[in-house]
Amino acid sequence: AAWATWATLLMPGFRRVPLRLQVPFQASGPRQVANALALLRGRPGKTVDLGSGDGRLVIEAYKQGLRPAVGYELNPWLLCLSHCRAWRAGCHGQVSFLRRDLWKVNLSDCYNVIVFLAPSVKPPLASKLLAELPDEARVVAGRFPFPSWSPSSSLGQGLEQVWAYDMKEVRRAARRSPGGSPV
């Protein structure tokens, strides 16, 4: 049963992703979602969730006025679930869920980025975000912080904790550090 679940539901999203960058789906709890979106409250600009899973963060971001709201996910089953959730929430057609590899998506027009991914993904993702995001962007990480970045703020405790990183501050800290590498 476990193998059948893996083979039909989870594996399709992993086929083109190197093993060290694979992140299994784990649904965000209501408190995690609330904490992440509290750190983005009132911010203008495009909001994206990298590895959007079942879409709950994107849908709630849209409901709280963060628009446009876009989710990037490789797993077709999770994308289908995201579309169903959006339809049930009454925002189908108002939010976007795209089957795209987050490593190939251009993030230069994103001002609010949500990342609930595994620690193994954070260092290479940090490099991508630094290269592509504008200075005004804010990155909110859930479950695991970026190991070499200092957060601008944090909310919650334990598994519900989220960290916010303002790209201007991350870049400023990188210039001040002896090695100069914020990754």
From TrEMBL:
Sample GO molecular function, one term: protein-lysine N-methyltransferase activity
Name the UniProt record assigns to this protein: F173A methyltransferase
Family: Belongs to the ANT/ATPSC lysine N-methyltransferase family.
Gene: Fam173a
InterPro entries cross-referenced by the UniProt entry: FAM173A/B, SAM-dependent_MTases_sf
Gene Ontology biological-process annotations: methylation; regulation of mitochondrial ATP synthesis coupled proton transport
Taxonomy of the source species: Eukaryota, Metazoa, Chordata, Craniata, Vertebrata
Record's keyword terms, sorted: Methyltransferase, S-adenosyl-L-methionine, Transferase
GO cellular component: mitochondrion
Domain of life according to the entry: Eukaryota
